[in-house]
Amino acid sequence: MFQETILQKRDQFTKIFDQLTHSISWSVDKRVRMSITSQFMSTERDFDPKAYLYVIDFIKREEGWFSSLPYNTRYILAALLITQFEDPYKAYSELKECYEVLTNNKFRKGPYTYLSAFSLLTHKKENGNLAEQAQRAMEIYKAIRSRHFFLTSSDDYPLSVLLSQSNRSIDSLMEDIEYFYDFLSKHGFRKGNDLQFLSHILTQGQPERRVQLAETTARYLEAFQSEKVKIKGMHYPALGVLALIDTPENTLADVIKAYSHFNESKLFRWYKDMSLLVAIQLYVQQIIADNSVLSVGIATSIQTILQAQQAAMIAVISAGAVAAASSSNGGGN
What we know:
The chain has helices at residues 2-23, 30-41, 49-63, 71-84, 88-103, 111-122, 130-147, 157-163, 170-185, 193-202, 210-226, 236-245, 248-263, 272-290, 296-330.
């Protein structure tokens, strides 16, 4: 079924991307626009440029001049609110409450705490206390940082919030994270923040299947490489998501075919790294929609992981743009 719709999805992606570009600005990094388009592709709702701009303007007015929310993150946040909630304006007010709860529990103000607030909003424990969940998320973050001090920063906030929903002990979660990190670093994955992100993602699997899950993730890397697809650190989280869903034997052919189709598009001609991410994301979203085998919990977690990955990538792109601008402005001194 996926192969029957992939060309249609490619055309739909291009259409939304063009509408989005005309709605915001050509000056916004193309990869950011692609990531936002991917978010809108995750829903069956039609993209409404006017409604999107209204939400962006609403957030801008509510945040004020001295907000710690960068404009690129504002764009992705507006997309998340529109695609995940019937009333994005009400959801924004609830998100701000979550944001305040997090900052009251020592999360630093900034874009990643906004994204963490979204994760908290969409993963509230049933009948749970937001303050207690935020406190547990900070304890998880500190535990991660104590083990990988130089790798851990505010970009680990969103997944710390996601992990806080687990009823497992923090020591048990840390043990799994370390296991995945060590195993995969010995099986072709480069040590660093991308591998740490991947290790966090894999803890969403069943603890008793961690050996199988680690081996499956390593097989994905080998399988893509055997197809001459270059895997970079930015793709690591996507491999983890695929491993949570199924094995390479059952998924790779569809993903590679989708990747090839997207590469044929003019839009992706010089952005093959993004082409692979989009192909995997669309495949995963189709599987979640069609597959009743996946539990609601894991399906929801996977959606949040994809959103966190997109948001983290946008933050990295934005930081690079700021650094480049600063370098350019200071180059003559």
